Amino acid sequence: MSSTVTAINTIARWLNYALAIPMISLGIIGALLTMLIFLGQQSFHRNPTILYLLAGAVMTAIHLPTIYLQSILVDGFYLGLFNTNDIACRERNYLFYVTTVAAISYPCWAAFDQYASTHRQADFRYSWSSMRFARFAIFGTVVFWSIIYAPLIFISRSVNDVCILLDGPLKFIHSFVLTPIVFIMGPLVLIAGFTYGTIRNLRATAFASRHDRLTKQIRRMVIPQVVILAIFGLPFGVNCLYDDLTSKVQKDPLRKAIEHLIQQITRLIYHVIFVSTFYIYLYMSMEMRKVMVRMIRKYFQPRRIEPLNSYLDKPLTIRRTRLRTSSNANRFDY
Questions:
Q1: Per DSSP, what are the bridge partners of residue 157?
Q2: 304: which DSSP letter?
Q3: How far lies 180's CA from each of 98, 111, 172, 202, 329, in Å?
Q4: Domain ranges across the chain
Q5: Which residues of the chain are under the pLDDT cut of 50?
Q6: If one looks up domain 2-300 in CATH, what number appears?
């Protein structure tokens, strides 16, 4: 059995080497490019949906190097301060959930904005699909989740070189109320409802005809992202719920190894949500591809400098101009 456990643990560790490290690299690059394109394109500046997607890219750029990289160091290289230090454990748990939930909230807001922007009532569109409301929602989302997950700071401890949540009412609320709502039911219900509402609104052909090409491209960018969020977030939420339900069960080394491997797989699947966003945008939006090509040409295409001889070899042309003088040009008064 020991050889089987070793083999399973080796597979779990190599998942971090072969998949997690390339994924985090592609995710960080994609998040940074998303921010550069959205901020550099004037046509994106006044669109609330783009503002939500930009906020999601910023949160992804924070989450991947600060949170997911810590998990890779622990599981792949057996390095990690948060398993041996209480302060690091509290910081890791708190930031993990705040950044993760905020990052998956912004695509839900984007789906809501698509529903609001296609609503038939002008007052509804003006109130709920605006840059002002989008800024308020982005800031309010961070504040809301920061307050909701603040109790994790007080119940996180490093016990036997493992960062855990201490038993009690706060852990029960986190494990059996927040986790099912945030990671399982919430995204599925919100995304399905807003997507259905958007499709129903677009059935009014008179309103749909007024949507320009950029708006349609943005909708094509949002829909695949929210579908991936709803599907890929489900295994991660179920696995977190299973870990909480079986936290007090005595487990043999083989079961621990298998559960650890499943945890690594579900975490990889879940982080596809963060990594794939930019590449979905690039594939679905022609406007994104145009901006990307312009950026590549601007920063990577070598500038052509003509040698000085090319100017000397060019024939010199002299233009003759006729000087016009008035009839009194040569008169002098004494």
A1: 164
A2: P
A3: 16, 21, 12, 32, 96
A4: 2-300
A5: 208-210, 308, 310-312, 316-319, 321, 323-334
A6: 1.20.1070.10
